[in-house]
Amino acid sequence: MSTRRPLIGIPADRRLLGHHYFHCVGEKYIAAVAEGAQAVPVLIPSLGEGLQARELLADFDGILLTGSPSNVEPHRYNGPASAPGTLHDAWRDATTLPMIPQVIEAGLPLLAICRGFQEMNVAFGGTLWQKLHEVQGYRDHREDLEAPLDEQYGPAHDIELAPDGLLARLSGERRLTVNSLHSQGVQTLGAGLAVEARAPDGVIEAFRVADAPSFALGLQWHPEWKFKDNSFSRALFAAFGEAARERALQRAKVR
Ligand SMILES: N[C@@H](CCC(=O)NCCCC(=O)O)C(=O)O
Description:
29% of the residues lie in helices and 24% in strands. The chain has helices at 27-36, 53-57, 90-105, 115-123, 149-152, 166-171, 231-254, and strands at residues 7-11, 13-17, 20-24, 40-44, 62-65, 110-113, 127-129, 157-161, 175-178, 185-188, 193-198, 204-209, 216-219. 41% of the residues are buried. It comes from Steroidobacter gossypii.
């Protein structure tokens, strides 16, 4: 029976560096997959429809959707035009949004973080607030970009966990403290998503795919940041890796 580490795909951001575009993934996500999930991180270029995702997914045991300073293009959820100067990543949208339902349908474990969480909500038909801090009743969920990184990714607010949810089960807690580095947030929840956690102002901070055959979790915060120093983050990536190992074993049986 195969004992190789599971392969976890990570769709890349497409970013202009100098005169050329690159497809890139933040190293902290790569480390969390390799060390936290004990899996092999495989970066996936964001080639949109050119990717043939369905065939590609057959060779993977999980997918991680990362955070990004870019926003999902509003036309993807019939939202209002973004403020001038907003950073988007159309190629990433064109890659992840069609991929998400295929990942769930194929029974691959999925962990989505921040922008990835927002992509999941849009892929399931939900919509986004673009500037939570300008919406009556919501606090500012952004980081201070002038602050040191440890402060930007440091504890920012509590979340209340759904008592019957996966996060409550994984953590054994009802309330946790998380970091917060986002301007956007869930406005309407996508069909089939079950809320796992909310911030004190009511912002949805986590959900799962209610009827997914495997691990399918979206988080608005960043558990990958110094995950080794946080027992809940370690448990999250360990559970994600375990689900990917299970998929790898199933795949090995049918080869
Ligand atoms: N642009 C979206 C998502 C924010 C996000 O993912 N921030 C993290 C970026 C850097 C990192 O990967 O840690 C929004 O503003 O809501």
